[in-house]
Amino acid sequence: MCMPNKAAITALAFCTIGFGPATPRVFxxxxxxxxxxxxxxxxxxxxxxxxxxxxxxxxxxxxxxxFEAGRGHQNINGLIKFGLFKxxxxxxxxxPFLRDAxxxxxxxxxxxxKWRMITQKNTRxxxxxxxxATLPTAGKDLxxxxxxxxxxxxxxxxxxxxxxxxxxxxxxLGHPGASGFDRSYFSALSWSTSFTKKWGATAEIAGFSxxxxxxxxxxxxxxxxxxxxxxxxxxxxxxxxxxxxxLPRVTVFAGVTYAIADLYHSRLAHRSSRR
Length: 275
What we know:
- By secondary structure, the protein is mainly β.
- It has a single domain (6-272), classed as monomeric porin ompg (Porin).
- It has helices spanning 6-13, 267-272; strands spanning 60-70, 73-85, 88-100, 103-105, 109-118, 126-135, 148-159, 162-174, 181-194, 199-208, 218-230, 233-244, 250-262.
- A hairpin with a 2-residue loop joins strand 11 and strand 12.
- It starts with 5 loop residues before the first helix and ends with a helix.
């Protein structure tokens, strides 16, 4: 069974704010919320690597937390999102706990933004740009060890109850203690649907290209059911399978997305009245 090394975790960590398993796995299962509605609707990024092009509602503060566990690798991961404007979402992610090969410490952090350039209408998809900087905050040499960058193009489209997300982008992996970057490319396709008002499911194929000898190419397949306790509170659980790459063969995960409040218009009171 393949075991995760530092470089592989670094590459996957580049999916945190749009990127992946070492930090919050991103989830694009919800369709675009009604921008004119009064009710808060969560826009989960968990648990897929693909990031939805849709943005958190303006003024809404939303958090995602979860855990994942595979052979030789466990973590607790978190993502905070805030709708600064209608089409601009600020993002911060971190791993408060990371354990690899028996070594445990805090993980790296990441900060960035999502800019929705085009909103879907009729046959036109949503198109967004995501930028994230990886911050080397991990302890005990578990993280990237250097500043990194990621830029992604996000394309999302609803077809009735079927939702699709396509991501294409580039990662720049910094060299610890030296200048320069190694480059890898990221591609992902995710699908999600709803079976009832509360139950749904998502599936994904995603991977990174080769970056260097310590960070070879990876390819993962993911499947997960989801359950919306409320429109603003969504649970997920599932697993992803490493087709190839320096990753545990099977990793299980579970987490929650919670849209806390509209800090601009106090929609929390409106939401509480519907409980």
